[in-house]
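Objective 1b of the project was to move from sequence-level analysis to a structural picture of ligand recognition. The entry below was assembled by the postdoctoral researcher (A.K.) and checked by the PI before modelling. It contains the amino acid sequence of the target and the SMILES of the bound compound, zinc ion.
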Amino acid sequence: MKTTPEDAAARRAVPPVICYPTETLPQPDLPLYRAALVGAEVVATHVAPPREACAFEVPAGHFFRIVSSEGPQVGDLNLWNAVDLSERFYSGKTRALHGTHVTTGERLWSSFPALRPMATIVEDDLHWYGIDDFGGSVHDVIGTRCDPYTGNLLAGTQYHHCCHSNLIRALSESRGLTVEEAERHVHDVLNVFMCTGFTRDTGQYFMKASPVRPGDALTFFAEIDLLGALSACPGGDCSAEHSSDTAACHPLNVEVLKPEEGALGDWRSPPVNGYDRSHGTGGR
Ligand SMILES: [Zn+2]
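Corresponding predicted holo structure:
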């Protein structure tokens, strides 16, 4: 085994470079979206019951709002292109572009080859939280989703109401897919209202009680036609444990809002990514 090099301290002292500077990232017209939100009316309401999920459709140019209704509760969100489920939320690239947690003005990006904004966060009632002394913050794109496989791996359990399973059932019912078909489409989530981070000493993923309270909401603008699914996580506020029926759980509401006619001016749904997809083959 190699010993620590003499210049170890110097190597560690090299300052970091931001992987993806976002100066050239296409920016949303937030003032336009916010003005449109003011006159928007709720056209549909869905409820994710505790330890269950709901599916919902949001046409491009509408808004959707996830609301804490009865008590502190974390939600696991999946998003798909409503007309092509192979285009779906890409948590890893969203993290690379915006950081570990997202808030107002940041966007949820879709998978390759589309790589375009699916939704833009227009209002975040937890924007005040910032980053706490533990390195924790809210609305992360660092977790995956609680699932029965990891529970089985770590504890030998057969638990059926993890977010992964809840999202599968919601998608299966909404699109008439078998459980096996639906499972292929479920992906890493946006952890709505969840407070998470990595421990400074061991780098481990941690969670702590969500600061969300009834009435708090996270509001998105749909950049493309969306199918969404939201699971009210069995972890409740995620202050203690998940993947069981132990935690106190509450429902989450999803409101779909339609802006007034003409409120978006000449806004257009973003096109798919401009890369030519030849991957060095010359187009063969
Ligand atoms: Zn969960």
